[in-house]
Amino acid sequence: QVQLVQSGAEVKKPGASVKVSCKASGYTFTTYYIHWVRQAPGQGLEYMGMINLSDGGTNYAQKFQGRVTMTSDTSTNTVYMELSSLRSEDTAVYYCAREAPATCYFDFWGQGTLVTVSS
Amino acid sequence: EIVLTQSPGSLSLSPGERATLSCRASQSVDSKNLVWYQQKPGQSPRLLIYGASSRATGIPDRFSGSGSGTDFTLTISRLEPEDFAVYYCQQFGGSPPMYTFGQGTKLEI
Asked: Which residue is closest to B92 within chain A, CA to CA?
């Protein structure tokens, strides 16, 4: 069965970086895209960007360009999202989600990782 | 960037009633790229409808999607207790193409 298992909660200080992982199983890793979406406490869903696992290509939402880096390790079927220069507004649950290429929808989601930014 | 505006922001209904949720886009969206998700408290979003009107695997037929252009609708024909949740629409498009979400509609008893 398809699973996306994310790393555990993180607490970071303002200005630091955080790296969240998303380990995929139950399907052929490189034939899908992985996207990252975040949700601040009590708020809606915010799109961050994606990585194409067949070639490592990335596409980031303009808001996060320069601060986010998405990478993958095909030997462990794991995707990473690193967000730098953290501020309090980055406190959120971060989700990874899978898309079959060119379908434009996310059919499986990770369980979410809470990142808290606090001094 | 295409902005999606969902209405109402919240909706209070009873089990057995019909729910109609709206998603309006700031410019035309290809119907193939309009999606609906359900999110319950403490859970990840769950895919409900893709391509504006196709139900995802395992989604009951009381959920239906419709619409085109800038106006899309999610209808739940007869509410069950487990349907009370927040619903989000999402699209892919615009220039440059990007994924965006609506702000959500909270469906409550």
From this structure: A104
The DSSP-derived string for B43-66 is S--EEEEETTTEEPTT--TTEEEE
* Long-range interactions of A39-44: CB distance < 8 A, separation 24+: A39/A92, A39/A93, A39/A95, A39/A112, A40/A89, A40/A91, A40/A92, A41/A91, A41/A92, A43/A92, A44/B88, A44/B101, A44/B102, A44/B103, A44/B104
Question: How many angstroms separate the CA of residue B64 from the nearest CA in chain A?
Answer: 16
Would you call A104 and B92 a contact, using CB atoms and an 8 Å cutoff? yes
pLDDT in tens, chain A (119 residues): 999 999 999 999 999 999 999 999 999 999 999 999 999 999 999 999 999 999 999 999 999 999 999 999 999 999 999 999 999 999 999 999 999 988 999 999 999 999 999 99
Q: Give the single-character DSSP code of B78.
A: S
Report yes or no: B1 and B100 within 8 Å, Cβ to Cβ.
yes
Nearest residue to A67 (alpha-carbon basis) of A39, A50, A48, A54: A48
CB burial of B52-90 (b: ≥16 within 10 Å; e: otherwise) equals bbebbeebeeebbbebeeeebbbebeebeeebbbbbbbb
